[in-house]
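Lab notebook, bench 4. The sequencing result for the construct came back, and we need a structural model before the next group meeting so we can plan mutations. Quick request posted to the team channel:

Model the 3D structure of this chain.
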Amino acid sequence: MNQGLKLHKSISILIHILAWILIGAVLFLLGPLSWNTTLPVEFWYRQLTLITLLVGLFYANKDVFVPKLLFEGKIWPFLLLILGLCFSLMFAMEYFENLLHLPELMHKAFHPEDDQPFKPKRDYINVFMLLVLFLAAGISTSVAAVQKWQTDEALRRQLDQQRISSELSYLKAQINPHFFFNTLNNIYSLTSIDVESARIALHKLSRMMRYVLYETEKDQTLLSKEIGFIKDFIELMKLRISEKVKIELEIDEKMEDRVVAPMLLLPFVENCFKHGISSRQPGTISIKIHTQENTLTLETSNKIVPKNMGSPESSQRGIGLANTKRRLSLLYHKKHELAIDDQNPENEYRVTLKINLA
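Done. Here's the predicted structure in token form:
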């Protein structure tokens, strides 16, 4: 990484050097060389001094004035400083040219046959010089603004990535620990009734734990592994629910394997069992997962079972849903559609999630 940063810095310095060489050649070298006359050496001193002032103004403005004043909201002090500095540099160059007697020497170079005594112009403002200085200040301000935008954008992406990682870690911790403990107790009870079923259930639980511990460390996983995790979760949940609850599961068997963010579908499936099961009344949980071309679709529905307002689960759906929405917006911005319907005559909680995996 350090070598990459050094290389990037070296390339940036090289680009700056080449850019100034090009600007100097175009503005201060090609034009004078095309003039059909012999220019005095003082003229080239003037050109070298001017390009030096421009370079100094450019980097002083980009690295000091813009960050310390403009980006801090001090707009008027910044504008007054730039105006004052440009006019000061213009007058300084005028003084330097007069010190070298450059106007007189240039007049002789272009009018060698003129025997009249040289009369210097009394213009107080060199418009061309002022425009060149303003141009250098304007370009350096634009470069500083673009660099700040790039830095802020890189920082935002880094923060978003850190937020995604932290939210994924939270999501891993959010999986109900009681699920694992209760599943282990159910498996323990099965060992005295149906050893083979207990062995299969234990294998599913260990496979789920492996997925949570290892696959979620990656940014992406295969869709087949995510679907396998959902299937194992549903099979183990069947050990805990009564026969009154009917589970309708439709998952495409021949699903094209694509990459997807891990643990993205679980919160919606888990909510069906958390909030759609009553110990007294029968109910139905419907879970459908299928793909069409590049679109992955998840559809879930369950009866809305009133929860005790004092219980922790009464607010868990809102918190979990908010976290999942945030994660979807970070990972699949403008590439997903989420529709939630909890206001229907059937008193069902319905979720439709579509993700473009292209």
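Residues 175-356 form a domain with the Heat Shock Protein 90 fold (CATH 3.30.565.10).
Will bring this to the meeting.
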